[in-house]
Write a structure and sequence with these properties.
By secondary structure, the chain is of the alpha/beta class. The chain has five helices and five strands, in the order E-E-E-H-E-H-E-H-H-H. Helix 1 packs parallel to helix 2, helix 3 packs across helix 5 and helix 4 packs across helix 5.
Length: about 160
C-alpha cells in the first residue's frame, strides 16, 4: 500500500510517499511543490492543484493523509494556507482518491514519538529511523509530509487491531 502524506502551505507544500512492504515501511519519493510570492494567490493555488494532480497521477497512491492546520497568531497566513489546503483536498478527490485522512500536528507527534509536544528534530529523527534513511529528509516540509504518511500508516495498523 502506498500512502501520500502532505504538509500544506502556499509557498511550500511538502509531500512524502511511503509504501509498506511486509512489515517494513519504505520511502518511495518526497519533495516540495513551490510557488512564488511574486505571482497572484490564484495562480499559486492553480499551480499547486496542477502539480499535486500530476504527482498523484504518476505515483498512484492508495491513500492520502493531510495535516490539519493550526495557527495561533497570524490570521492572514492562516486564511491563505487554508485556501491551499482546500485546493490540496480538491486535487486529491478529483484525482480519484476516495478518502483523504486528516491529522493534527499533535496526532502526528504522538504517533511517531509518543509525545505531543515533541520537537521537530525528534519527529524527523524518528522518520529517518522508521524509513531506514541514511540522513534526515530535507527540507522540513518534506520531512513533515513523510511524518504525516507514517502517522497514517500507524493509524491504519492500530485501527485494524481494534476491529
Amino acid at each position: 500500500m502506498k500512502i501520500l502524506g502532505i504538509d500544506p502551505g502556499i509557498a511550500t507544500t511538502g509531500y512524502g510517499l511511503i509504501e509498506n512492504k511486509g512489515s517494513n515501511l519504505c520511502l518511495v519519493d518526497y519533495g516540495c511543490i513551490l510557488t512564488s510570492p511574486k505571482i497572484p494567490v490564484s495562480e499559486r493555488l492553480n499551480k499547486l492543484f496542477n502539480e499535486l494532480s500530476k504527482l498523484i497521477k504518476k505515483q498512484k497512491p492508495d491513500e492520502v493523509a493531510v495535516e490539519e492546520l493550526f495557527f495561533a497568531k497570524n490570521v492572514k497566513t492562516a486564511m491563505v494556507v487554508s485556501q491551499a489546503r482546500g485546493v490540496i483536498v480538491l486535487s486529491c478527490v478529483r484525482s480519484g482518491m476516495k478518502v483523504v485522512s486528516e491529522y493534527t500536528p499533535l496526532e502526528v507527534k504522538m504517533a511517531l514519538v509518543g509525545y505531543g509536544r515533541a520537537e521537530k528534530q525528534q519527529v524527523q529523527k524518528m522518520v529517518t529511523t522508521l524509513l531506514n534513511l541514511k540522513e534526515m529528509p530535507k527540507p522540513d516540509d518534506a520531512a513533515d509530509a513523510l511524518a504525516i504518511a507514517v502517522c497514517h500508516f500507524n493509524s491504519r495498523v492500530s485501527n485494524s487491531y481494534k476491529q
